Each structure stands twice: as C-alpha cells, then as structure tokens.
Amino acid sequence: MRRLTSLLILTVLMATPALASQTPPPLVATPTPGQAAAPRPETPRAPSIGGPANPGMPASTNIRLDLTITDTYTGEPIKKVVSLVILTGNSGMIRAQGSDGWSTLNVDAIAAAYSDGLVSVRMTFEFTPAQPPKENPAGRASRLHESITVALQDGKPMIVSQSADPATDRKVTAELTATILK
User: Fold this and answer.
1) Which of 40, 128, 167, 170 could anchor a disulfide with 143, C-beta 3.0 to 4.6 Å?
2) Is pTM beyond 0.85 here?
C-alpha cells in the first residue's frame, strides 16, 4: 500500500508541470454550422512603454522631450527648461547640481512613439531651486519630487502637474512636450 501511495504521488508530481503548461480553451461560443461568428469586441490598449516596436513607426525614431518647470519660490515666476532626446522605447536621464551644493535638477524619462501621433512618457524629476539666503535663513528651498506617466500628442505641450508648497505660497508647474523627430 505504501508503495502504491508513493507511486501515485510521483505520478501526480510528474503530471503537474504538463497540466500547468496547457492553456485552457477560450471561453467563446462556437457558432453552429451556417451561423456567422459574432464579432469579438476589440479591447482598447494603452500604449506601453519599453515594449515591442509599434507597427508603422520605425524602431529608430527619436523623441525630444522638453520639460519646463515654472517655480514661484521668489514670488516672481522662474522657468527652468530641460530637453533630452531619446530613442523610442528607451530611457534617458539628466543630472544637474548647482554650484551652491544643494540646488538640483534631475530628470529620468522613458518614451515610446506611436504611428497615430501619440507619445507615451514615464518621467520622474527632482527639483530643488537655489534659495536666496534673505528669503530662507536656513539657506535651503524645499525639494519637489514628481513621477508621472502620460500620453501626449506629438509636439503639443501639456501641463502635467501643478503643485503647491505645504508651508508657503510657492507654486510649481511642470509642462511637458514630446516631439517625434522624423
């Protein structure tokens, strides 16, 4: 009996990977002879980032990303513009630190272009402006760190975030433009 139980367990263990690799049949009604198959609804798919190349868009397509950060930490709007060109489906990054030792502007992005003129972008940026000592006795401005994923129309700017400093009246706006370079 013990040998029979062991043999049964061994058989089940050996068959499990084979059963797991089988895909179940689709749950679609099969039309009867003479009956037309019902059209299957098309499932909308969001553009994926870093996936396979998009049909109709060359794999060697470059995308220029222009990020404009407008900050009111001094009362007057200050604009900083960062641009980078990346190959569709790939990533790029920029690291900048001011001579004051604490102001930073870091950007990481990945983008994919599509034949319909859409560009999907996943971007993370960190921005710490240089703060004039008279405005901030501690000598340091608050840091802004954002991460976004958006679909943009080729060449059209879009405000992708607006944020407010929790302690002051400071407002920061981020505008992003993705341009497919042909």
Assistant:
1) 128
2) no
Average pLDDT, the chain: 76
For tokens 């049964």, name the residue: 8
The single residue listed with the structure tokens 């604009």 is 79
What's the CA gap between 109 and 181, in Å, rounded? 17
Side by side, the strands of the sheet bearing 62-71 are 78-87, 62-71, 171-181, 158-164
List the alpha helices (DSSP H) in the chain.
2-21
CA–CA gap between residue 176 and residue 43 (Å, rounded): 28
**CA distance readout (Å), 43 to 40, 53, 116, 133:** 9, 19, 17, 56
Residue 147: strand pairing partners: 124
| Max CA distance (Å), the chain | 88
- Which residue has better confidence, 82 or 167? 82
Q: What is the pLDDT of residues 12-49, one digit of tens each?
A: 444 444 444 444 444 445 555 665 555 544 444 444 55
List the 118-128 sheet strands across, edge first: 90-97, 104-113, 118-128, 144-153
- Tell whether the torsion through CA atoms of 114, 118, 120 and 123 is positive or negative: positive
Structure tokens of 122? 């996943």
CA neighbor of 111 nearest in space, from 77, 140, 164, 151: 151
